[in-house]
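Recap from last week: sequence in, structure out.
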Amino acid sequence: MRFGLFSFDPTTGILQRAGVEVPLQRQPARVLAALLEKAGEVVSRQELSSAIWEEGTHVDFERGLNFCISQLRSALQDDAAQPLYIRTIPKQGYQFIAPFTRTAIIPEPENKFPQSASPLERPVRSSTLPVAAALFLLVSMAGLGLLRHLRRTRAVLHSPIVAILRFDNETGDPSLDRFSDTLTDDVITRLAASGAEKYKIIGNSEVLRVPREQRNLTDIATALHANYVILGQVQTVGSGTRVLAHLIRMPDQTHVWVVRRESARSDVRDAESAAAAAIAEEFSLRIVPTQPSGS
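Predicted structure tokens:
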């Protein structure tokens, strides 16, 4: 099945984007297969849960399905607020909304030459030699061009992914919730602007809004294929406010850098802007490309 830049084989669960395999766990792959099977229709959460887990399985179906949908949207680079592929139908289920085509397996062409004869053993008339030489040259040039393209593609594919969690308001003052949310959005905007092709930013995934006590950084990084996560805290210090931001490399959860900013409560708006600028500037220098495997 093909949709957009993606192709998906429901029998193997393999998802590809522009010919490159996208990591996708078995359960989210089953969700995608179920949605594609009824593309355009609303598939209930119960139907999807049944497609994921066999009868008699004891799991938290609601939480498990939410995780699968989150991971699937991450793999498809889809946005729940403005979906291209998977639309949430409140209190009902989900709907696959993108046009797609079903692809058939193309049979291998029959071998017109005896198997005992290799291409070098087949007779070639002298008049075809210039044509063969020109064809070989063209194929070689095309191969070199393809190799360069693959190298550039690999460089892009291995640009690090940075997941930014919503900053936590630890002051106990609900009036600073807006400050924490605005600070998060400002950091996302600034890092995305300064990153260009160096790295990719994810800041709008549902899994990034999980309450702190339910957070598991390894699960979040796995779901979003993230190489780094950014955690933020807003705290009270004396009569002022302190902002802490942590850049953490995954999967080893190594603290790469910490930014600390303190300001007076009367200076909240300027403090938010200054903190976001400092965080983006410090972290953008320390987010480095990941090493492609096998290079």
